[in-house]
Amino acid sequence: MRKQLALSTIILLSSIVNAQEQDYVVSCSAKSLLFPKQVLSKDAKNLDISADHSEVAGDNYLLTGNAVINSAEYYLAADKINLQKATKTSKAHGNIKFQNAGIMLTSDSAVVKKQDSTFKQVKFHYPESKINGQAQKIVNNGKEQTFDSVSYTLCPVGNTDWVMKAAKITLNSKANKGIAENVTIELMGVPIFYYPHYEWKLKGRSSGSLAPTLTTFDDSHNDKNGYQIRIPYYFNIAPDRDFLLTLNHVSTRGEAIEGKYRQLFDNGRIEIEGHYLNKDKISKQKRWYVDSKLDLSLNDKTALNIISKRVSDKQYFKEISHDNTRETSLISSVDLAYKNKENNLSASIFAESEQLVGHNNDAEYTRAPEVFIHKKVVGLNGREVNFSIVSTQFKHKTKGTNETGTRTHAQATFTRDIKTSAYSLQPKFEISKTKYAMDDKTKKDRSIYSFGIDSKLFFERDTRLFGTGVTQTLTPRLAYNYTPYKNQNALPDFDSEKMSNTYENLFSGKKYTGLDKISKANDITFGLESDFIDQKTGETYLALKIAQAHYLDKKAGKNYSNIIAGADLTMGKFTFNNALEYDTQLSEVAKHHSALSYVSNARKFITLTQGDDGEQRSAGLYGAYPITQKVHAFAGINRSLSDSINNKKTIGVAYESCCWAIRVAQLKEITSNSKFDNVVKFEFVLKGLASSNSSLTARLEEDIPNYLSYLE
């Protein structure tokens, strides 16, 4: 009986459902079980039998009035049970309750045998999968199970907002096959989907239609409203291969075909995705997109990763797919990596190319190829030496105005980690040699070393904060970094960018990322960190930090760096985060970012942000609010205060019940000085079964912090 009612395999509409714990749950008043769960007998050989009255005739037992049979396999209760020991058959009538390891059911009449059982007028429930429903008759002959006039749902017991009905369902566990005839899905009593015949695998994935998606948009060519319907069909080719075929109807452009093929190997996987529109109604051009990925483990130490992305034109994502509209470039790459943990040795060969798809953005340098080797030597008492060499050939689309060539950088780093309960010391010495072989035949090089030491003291005490017992930690921090001056004006700049002034970056002594620019340093950095930690829960209520570097050699006429400070406060449902950079020379705040949040649950919160990155001031307002128990609104707005333009605006509303949900969201984002990408997406969810637009959830969580967007 454990496998005889495997309705959990009947999923006619399937999609990838992301499960996630939520602190917000729609209140459901329905019962959770058909009847109180019973404890099965621990005696594997004998039956526990009880009844108000019993009659014995040979090997036959007639039990009447609260009759119960309890075994290690199942529990059976009824008004009347006729037990035949010779044939191991139980015939039950009236108010039947049946339970085994996987299912609970009630019935009017039943015949229970070890290999052949029949239940009539049945209500069933799977507590683990939450599937419940009813059938006119369920028969198990030991080889296959049949359900006549069956309906089931994943709604709570007693709730039938949506149900799936079938004239007959047959499950054959030996053939791993299920067949359903005349299948209808009903929502609130209204049929919304019909299948005359459907077959699937009881274990593993099966082919079938997925839920369609609906999107409306403003066409960028003529600013006319349009709509998009995606109709997908999933092909389960083999246990290690599948294919998703989608018809993408774009009302203003035409019909596009989309396909995604996936295959698993013993040592890797491959994915190939392709979109094709034969003739755009407006541009009269072919439009297409290709994305392929190969991940392959050549052995236990070597891996190959290949990514290839190409699109027909820059406008494809905005005009045809209405997805990935934030892409500015498509990077294709080949990466062959070797890693030997036993010998602390790693190496890689990497190459990439770039296709620009955004507007008003410049091409970057690409690495084609890059060869990297790294070796770590571990000594006693925390001593460590890291040797590395990396040789990179840099290319650029605009060769005439950008230098290209090969950079080879060799480096040795000596470190030691000394740590006790009272203090820590981390001295570091680094020496490197960089050579440039430029395509214009010039050769340049640089040799440089640096030294640094980072130290901390650890103090703590017990105190009280807002009436709560806390442990306060106090960590004074002092670091010294030295790098001699080197004139690097003649060196090319392939990949260096100025580092942001964060707390940790201030202690690094570095001003640039990459290897082309290594700035002079003769700095002492002072810092102080303090945390207030709840003694019972271990949660940090308040975290404070502040740091400033003193330049022993003036930099840009300054003796001190800007002060970097941060404060993070948590008080129940309120959180406050603040980070700032204070210019001591001008006596003003140069940069800052603040966020204040009240979070009651994932459907009731508000977040305010305000910041200045030194170039642009911006503010944000994000939140969600339950209008009723089942309806909530959500919104997120990011506005540039410098030029009074909304960079991004997301608003929407959702209805969510115990079994189904619907959501509509408007997504508006600036793409250029005067153009906006304006899309309206719809999502319909039958909980536990399918979502019509699962990609919307990821977009909403990105646009609205603290919003748990999953409706499943």
Structure overview:
By secondary structure, this protein is an all-beta fold. Helices cover 3% and strands 61% of the residues. The protein contains three helices and 43 strands.
Summary keywords:
712 residues, mainly beta, 26-stranded antiparallel beta barrel, twelve-stranded antiparallel beta sheet, disordered N terminus
Helix fraction bin: under 10%
Contiguous helical run count = 3
Q: Oligomeric form of this entry?
A: single chain
Terminal CA distance reads 30 Å
Largest sheet: number of strands, sense, barrel closure: 26 strands, antiparallel, barrel
Averaged pLDDT: 87
Structural class: mainly beta
Rg (CA only): 33 Å
Shape: globular
Beta-strand content bin? over 45%
Query: Unreliable segments (pLDDT under 50, ≥5 consecutive)?
Result: 1-24
What is the number of E strands? 43
Topology:
Elements: E1 48-50, E2 53-57, E3 60-70, E4 75-84, E5 89-99, E6 104-112, E7 117-126, E8 131-140, E9 144-153, E10 162-172, E11 177-187, E12 190-200, E13 208-209, E14 213-218, E15 225-238, E16 241-250, E17 254-265, E18 268-277, E19 287-297, E20 302-311, H1 316-321, E21 329-340, E22 345-356, E23 366-378, E24 383-395, E25 405-416, E26 418-419, E27 423-438, E28 443-457, E29 459-465, E30 468-483, H2 503-508, E31 521-534, E32 540-555, E33 558-560, E34 563-571, E35 574-583, E36 588-601, E37 604-612, E38 617-626, E39 631-640, E40 645-656, E41 660-670, E42 676-686, E43 690-691, H3 695-703
Antiparallel strand pairs: 1-3, 2-3, 3-4, 4-5, 5-6, 6-7, 7-8, 8-9, 9-10, 10-11, 11-12, 13-15, 14-15, 14-42, 15-16, 16-17, 17-18, 18-19, 19-20, 20-21, 21-22, 22-23, 23-24, 24-25, 25-27, 26-27, 27-28, 28-30, 29-30, 30-31, 31-32, 32-33, 32-34, 34-35, 35-36, 36-37, 37-38, 38-39, 39-40, 40-41, ...
